[in-house]
Amino acid sequence: MSNCVICGERPSAKQKINCKCCSKAFHANCINVKDGHIPSYNSGEYIWLCDNCNSKVISNKNQQSPVADSVTMSEIRDTLRALLDKQNHFIEKLEKHSTEIEQLKSKDIEHGAGIRENRENIEKLELQMKSVLEENNSLRQKCNKIQQSSMNNCLVVTGVPLPKNENVFLTTQLKGSALGMRLTDSHVVNSYRFLGAGRKNSNLIICFTKQSYRDEFLKCRKIKRDFSTKDLDKSLSNLVSEPNVIYVNEYLTAYNKNLFLKAKEYKNDNNIKYLWIKNGSIYMRKLEGTRAVLITSENDFQNIQ
């Protein structure tokens, strides 16, 4: 391997360019050729002559030297042949890519049709899902209505102390007496405690034989607005150190109880004045004189005007 004519150092194969005429080696950097162009010169795509050979070619041209003309034309033919080969290779690649593009277009059309079909199927499924949800919501409300109807003779009492070894019916009678209503077996079909974890004063559930008895009991509680544990028999009132208010409310299904809590939150956030429960149904009214709206789901909130 020859040393570079200009710097005297030996260039590597990747750094070297040879003069097309004298074949002497040169560093690409020494003759101001960019690294990316080196392969083109070494493959014959580009032709480079050193200053000495280039001067000879120019001199021979000026002297009309047949030899010089012959060498130059040969180089041009070689260059043109290389260019034609590259052009043919490029055309082959272009034709191949054109075929691939057409195939991709065809696949894209197929995929587009598949996407449209899938979108249509999704829209159908969404409509079916909407219908199913509406039907499910309707069935849930019907079931809730039936369940609530079976509970309409019941009341839930909060705040009554829980004595040890309690006779629940006796506790119910004592509470009724404190409200001014004497309760007997003909009034109450069942009464029991709803025991919550860790709760000392668990809810007392009273199931009346008739709704009219339930309504009378509610009326007695509304009359006695300040009703608390201090109004109970001493066997109950002495179980608490400080008197607490006793509340009486309609017994709601789990669905209605949750809906009532959400209605309460909506009422507070939207300046709704009235919210109440009647016979297991929830009602809301924005202002005095406006229409009362039956609340069966959260969707009914938007009907309040």
From TrEMBL:
Keywords: Coiled coil, Metal-binding, Zinc, Zinc-finger
Pfam family for this entry, one: Baculo_FP_2nd
SUPFAM superfamilies: FYVE/PHD zinc finger (SSF57903)
Residue intervals of the PHD-type domain: 1-56
Species lineage: Eukaryota, Metazoa, Ecdysozoa, Arthropoda, Hexapoda
Record-given protein name: PHD-type domain-containing protein
GO MF annotations in UniProt: zinc ion binding
Protein's organism: Phaedon cochleariae (Mustard beetle)
InterPro entries listed in its UniProt record: FP_C, Zinc_finger_PHD-type_CS, Znf_FYVE_PHD, Znf_PHD, Znf_PHD-finger, Znf_RING/FYVE/PHD
Coiled-coil regions listed in the entry: 87-149
Source domain of life: Eukaryota
Gene3D superfamilies: Zinc/RING finger domain, C3HC4 (zinc finger)
